[in-house]
Amino acid sequence: LEILHNQTWMSVCDAAFxxxxxxxxxxxxxxxxxxxxxxTAAFGKGxxxxxTQEIQCRGNESQIHLCLTSPSHEKNCSxxxxxxxxxx
Length: 88
Known about the structure:
It comes from Cirrhinus mrigala (Mrigala). A hairpin with a 2-residue loop joins β1 and β2 (about 10). This protein has one helix at about 20-30, and strands at about 1-5, 10, 35-40, 50, 55, 70, 85. The protein has one helix and seven strands. With about 90 residues, the protein is mainly beta. The two termini are about 15 Å apart.
């Protein structure tokens, strides 16, 4: 999962990425409900910068950028633990 932030695509770390976050992403993409969050091997590693914020959606937002964010407590956020999401 990558997001556009200040004209730069960034990979989202899976630290604190939960079901509510997945629901918002799948809804925004109009891709149905979230089915599964997968490990890095599923789609390969990305090569973008890592997003250093934790996304904190309530689950009812229409777009991911409407969710609150906070600084990540994850010290080892790398492409080995970026979010890989499958929507229905």
